[in-house]
Amino acid sequence: MDPRLDDDLVQLPDLLKETQEHAVRLLEGLAERPVAPPPGRREPVALPERGEGARGALEAFARRWEPGFSASAGPRYLGFVTGGSTPAALAGDWLTGALDQNVVGDLDSAAAGLERETVSWLRELLGLPVAYEGAFVSGATMSNVTGLAIAREWIGERRGVSVAEQGLAALGPVRVLSGSPHSSIGKALSVLGLGRSALRRVESLPGREAVDVDRLAEALRELDGEPAIVVANAGTVNTVDYDDLRAIAALRERHPFWLHVDAAFGAFAALSPEHAHLVDGLGEADSICVDLHKWLNVPYDSAVQLTRRRDLQARVFQNSAAYLGAVGDDPDFVHLTPENSRRLRALAAWFTLAAYGREGHAEIVRRDVALAARLGERLAAMPAYRLLAPVRLNVVCFTVAADPSRADEVARAVAASGEAFVTPTVYAGVPALRAAFSNWRTTEADVERVAEALARAAG
């Protein structure tokens, strides 16, 4: 054994304790750490010929790289839609690395059983029927890829072919309809060979990102009975708008289509009594995307995909190898996702759900919604800014009132201040900014600091 590796094995308890102490210092300093320091570019150094051992690696990381890392786990990182890691989720994630399980099936570990239990807890949390089965994947993009791959196989089933066996050439063209699809939908269609051009954007309601169901019905009618895929939104990224899921599902009485719902973070509206109506009809979908490293506040990378048609899912993703066993009626996870090797992503989610339950996570959702509304009120009172949409849930979409083209400049100024991080975007053709609340740590005091930083950045 390499002497440094052998020495680290002997000192492993002390090394883990030192790493824990280092992590605790990082977490205790999150509130004051620069939220998004300009990372710059560093030239890679040469690979060490002889390593420095784990303690030396920790010291090198702390010196060379850690100062440039963002405080994305902290309370004022409002960019993208990023949660943090609850204490229990962090503990689960640490154990994930320590246990190092490859969750392919039930042959050698109870890990697959824990993942199935976690999926069932998530189904209960979101109020979905027991008909939904699911698996953990890396994020919303891979969840959308998986759901749309099942949809592609369903289209083939309607046309009497199996894309999984015969390939895309046997399928023919496919039409995908959506009002305001997330960018990952186009990426998924590209990966799946359907092509970005398969996506047809259907007109939204006036002043909204929600699809006009009447226009969607017209688009389906034009297909003259050909099966299609409809991608509906349960929470758009700019304004957290929701399609009328129940009205869309009702169109299946007249038109054949697979309903995939992108509910990456919007599904968690189910935990707020005042907003649960927004996801009414989610249980009518054929497949659902839910991202967990957003509002469930577990570490990256973690999402779940859910579907009613696990048989089609296994047809797409089955892995034929004698040592993996037959697919059967209850397929192992190796037959259900694009990955063969899979880390136990479910453990962090299991920990946070076991630790805080429905009530704890509902409190996070309610608080973040209230804080987003508070920032919206503060911005509405500032002459320098203009809200571009109502604050429907946990995202505030706004622009610089006098000169929207300054949105990027303001975002950079806020980041440079170290006080907060918001992301630039474009909404309805207007350069804009987004502040997304999904972190379990964020408080009213953080909202005030963000508002003050935005006021200063506006000049």
Automatic annotation (TrEMBL):
UniProtKB keywords: Decarboxylase, Lyase, Pyridoxal phosphate
Any Pfam family the entry gives: Pyridoxal_deC
Names of required cofactors: pyridoxal 5'-phosphate
The keyword Transferase is annotated on this UniProt entry: no
Keyword Lyase found: yes
InterPro entries named among the record's database cross-references: Aromatic_deC, PyrdxlP-dep_de-COase, PyrdxlP-dep_Trfase, PyrdxlP-dep_Trfase_major, PyrdxlP-dep_Trfase_small
SUPFAM superfamilies: PLP-dependent transferases
Stated family: Belongs to the group II decarboxylase family.
Protein name per UniProt: Pyridoxal-dependent decarboxylase
